[in-house]
Amino acid sequence: MTVGAAAAVVAGAVLVAVAACGGTTVSAQAGGAPAFARCMRAHGVPAYPDPSATGLLPKQTLQQLGVSSSAFEAAERACIHLVPNGGRPTAAQAAVYRTVMLRYARCIRAHGVANMPDPDGRGHLDIGPGSGVDVNSPRFEAAYQVCKKDLSP
Q1: Left (φ > 0), alpha (ψ -120 to 50) or beta: where does 125 sit?
Q2: What's residue 127's pLDDT?
Q3: Residues 25, 80: one domain?
Q4: 3-state secondary structure (DSSP) of residue 128
Q5: Does 3 map to a domain?
Q6: Read out DSSP for 2-18?
Q7: pLDDT in tens, 45-60
Q8: Range of the domain at 147
Q9: Closest alpha carbon to 129 in 121, 120, 137
Q10: How many domains are there within the chain?
Q11: What does pLDDT average to in each consecutive run of 10 residues of the chain (153 residues)?
């Protein structure tokens, strides 16, 4: 798993964030997700997926989308106005997101990545370069394959 893939995975459970480490979260509430997806495709991310039937935007890595982080970020800046609250989660959404990410972090630790941190108060996980968590290691990849199921609410 690449660092970009790990960043997308950890940022993309209830809300979607498919940029480099950290990224912008995009709420899939109030019909913003379909318009956001169409806009992203129109602004240079042709493989950007449509939301699921429940309105959630699927988790995608930059590699899966076939674009660079700069191309993704440019499209996101052009389209973020289409989602409620500028793409920032409500307090309730952030609480659900943190719960999902905490379950994911615990699973990763239980499957051999002892230094996997808990998410911060917003639900973000600090992993990748400089964090002490090698997202390219076989151990992390194996744990991810087991735990990715925990990235759904």
Answers
A1: beta
A2: 85
A3: yes
A4: strand
A5: no
A6: -HHHHHHHHH-SSSB--
A7: 999 998 877 666 766 7
A8: 91-151
A9: 137
A10: 2
A11: 40 33 38 84 94 70 88 92 78 85 94 93 80 90 91 71
Distance, C-alpha 79 to centroid of its chain: 17
- 96, 153 Cβ separation under 8 angstroms: yes
Which residue, 65, 87, 109, sits at the end of a domain?
87
- At 108, give phi and psi (nearest 5°): -60, -45
Amino acid (1-letter code) at residue 55: G
* Residues 55 and 43 reside in one and the same domain: yes
Are 60 and 98 contained in the same domain?
A: no
On whether the CB atoms of residues 25 and 76 are closer than 8 A, the answer is no
Its pTM stands at 0.55
Within-domain flag for 138 = yes
Q: Please provide the average confidence, as pLDDT, over all residues in the chain.
A: 76
